[in-house]
């Protein structure tokens, strides 16, 4: 009778245990991917350059599995960072701007296939937590200050703070301006420098920024070694080589002289499995085109329209502009070329390393390198 009773309650014990939340505040951030995620959730893995360009990202949407020091994170997006050798380059990732190449990971085979393709490890080294509400931001901050004391003011943002927790080999970045908490195991990272789009450049003491950026891009093709640079002309309306954003079809692009060395790629909606976007990538020249996918038939090239393009490194192309822009212009000189009203968040430019120009229904993002020289662009 005792054995029967044990068998009856055993499944209940297992069921309760499976509901325990993973406390992200207690992770060492060197855990295997399978330990901190579940294929029961909607897992997406790949590149998202605005979030962070130099590592592979594993995104978990709307999971009920996570907490932070007792705070329930249900409904918050959680993103784990994974070290990936092939992303230590200026190819599709160097200057951000919005490149996305994310795929569903429904099982271990799909996960391992992506890890292998990027030379990535099967473990995490960081976590990025979405902080959607002011209430959640305030509660998270209280937890951080209770555990680590008052943080250091981030000089690059209005409300950002950071902690260098040497005893735990951790960097912690509280970035409420961008609704993020970012925690990294810095064992294999620079101990003196850090950069991402949401925190800007941070000097922990003795930072050599030039060497640091070079380490992030150690596998990059040197611009001086790039051959057969494509000729690009941007007109006053931001059209490129006569290809018009919002009008030119995919078929017209494929037949144009611009279409050289491009590889066609597709992105899928994780929930529906339908094609969500089509893009063409020329990684060698850091040159990309994006297309909206036809709802009726995304394989019909006549129905897919260009909805953006990116040129991430002007040193790898031969580019000219009709509006006075030139590669290598200083940030302040580029600002002078445009009316204040045409610049998005003009008053926040002192915190930015990019400029966004209104071009309804799109916008133009002008990117600048670590010396604040005009170095790349993105239209979408």
Please provide a written account of the structure.
With 380 residues, this protein is α+β, with helices and mostly antiparallel strands. Helix content is 17%, strand content 32%. It contains seven helices and 23 strands. Strands 7-2-3-6-8-12-11-10-9 form a nine-stranded antiparallel beta sheet, covered by helices on one side. It has a seven-stranded antiparallel beta sheet with strand order 16-17-18-19-23-22-21. It has a three-stranded mixed beta sheet with strand order 1-4-5, covered by helices on one side. The radius of gyration is 23 Å and the shape is globular. The chain starts with a helix and ends with a strand. The model is unreliable at 1-18 and 92-97 (pLDDT under 50).
Task: Throw out a few tags for this protein.
380 residues, alpha+beta, 9-stranded antiparallel sheet, 32% strand, disordered N terminus
Portion in beta strands: 25-35%
Structural class: alpha+beta
Radius of gyration: 23 Å
Numbering strands along the chain, what is their spatial order in the largest sheet? 7-2-3-6-8-12-11-10-9
* Total strand segments: 23
| Biggest beta-sheet profile | 9 strands, antiparallel
Percent helix, as a range, is: 10-25%
**Number of helical segments with 4 or more residues:** 7
Shape: globular
| Oligomeric state of this protein | single chain
Mean pLDDT: 89
Topology:
Layout: H1 2-18, E1 22-23, H2 33-36, E2 42-48, E3 52-61, E4 66-68, E5 71-72, E6 78-82, E7 100-104, H3 108-117, E8 126-130, H4 134-148, E9 152-153, E10 161-165, E11 170-175, E12 180-185, E13 193-196, E14 200-203, H5 209-216, E15 231-234, H6 250-254, E16 263-268, E17 275-282, E18 287-292, E19 305-311, E20 318-321, H7 331-335, E21 354-359, E22 362-368, E23 374-379
Parallel strand pairs: 1-4, 15-20
Antiparallel strand pairs: 2-3, 2-7, 3-6, 4-5, 6-8, 8-12, 9-10, 10-11, 11-12, 13-14, 16-17, 17-18, 18-19, 19-23, 21-22, 22-23
């Amino acid at each position: 009778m005792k054995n029967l009773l044990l068998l009856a309650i055993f499944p209940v014990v297992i069921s309760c245990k499976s509901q325990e939340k993973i406390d992200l505040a207690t992770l060492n951030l060197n855990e295997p991917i399978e330990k901190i995620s579940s294929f029961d959730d909607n897992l997406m893995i790949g590149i998202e350059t605005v979030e962070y360009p130099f590592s592979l990202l594993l995104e978990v949407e709307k999971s009920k599995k996570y907490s932070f020091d007792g705070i329930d994170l249900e409904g918050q997006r959680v993103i784990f960072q994974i070290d990936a050798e092939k992303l230590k380059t200026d190819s599709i990732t160097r200057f951000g701007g919005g490149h996305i190449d994310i795929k569903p990971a429904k099982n271990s085979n799909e996960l391992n296939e992506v890890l292998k393709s990027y030379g990535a490890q099967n473990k995490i080294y960081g976590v990025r937590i979405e902080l959607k509400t002011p209430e959640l931001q305030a509660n998270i901050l209280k937890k951080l200050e209770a555990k680590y004391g008052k943080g250091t003011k981030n000089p690059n943002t209005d409300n950002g703070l950071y902690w260098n927790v040497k005893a735990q080999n951790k960097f912690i970045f509280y970035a409420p301006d961008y609704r993020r908490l970012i925690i990294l195991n810095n064992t294999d990272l620079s101990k003196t420098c850090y950069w991402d789009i949401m925190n800007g450049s941070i000097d922990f003491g003795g930072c050599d920024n030039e060497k640091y950026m070079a380490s992030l891009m150690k596998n990059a093709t040197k611009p001086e070694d790039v051959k057969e640079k494509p000729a690009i002309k941007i007109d006053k309306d931001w059209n490129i080589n006569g290809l018009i954003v919002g009008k030119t079809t995919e078929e017209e692009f494929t037949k144009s002289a611009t279409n050289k060395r491009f590889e066609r790629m597709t992105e899928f909606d994780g929930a529906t499995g339908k094609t969500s976007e089509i893009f063409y990538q020329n990684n060698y020249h850091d040159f990309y085109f994006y297309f909206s996918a036809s709802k009726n038939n995304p394989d019909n090239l006549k129905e897919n329209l260009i909805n953006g393009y990116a040129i991430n490194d002007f040193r790898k192309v031969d580019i000219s502009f009709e509006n006075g822009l030139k590669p290598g212009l200083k940030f302040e000189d580029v600002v002078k070329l445009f009316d204040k009203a045409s610049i998005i968040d003009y008053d926040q430019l002192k915190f930015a390393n990019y400029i966004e120009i209104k071009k309804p229904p799109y916008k133009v993002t002008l990117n600048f390198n670590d010396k604040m020289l005009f170095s790349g662009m993105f239209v979408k």
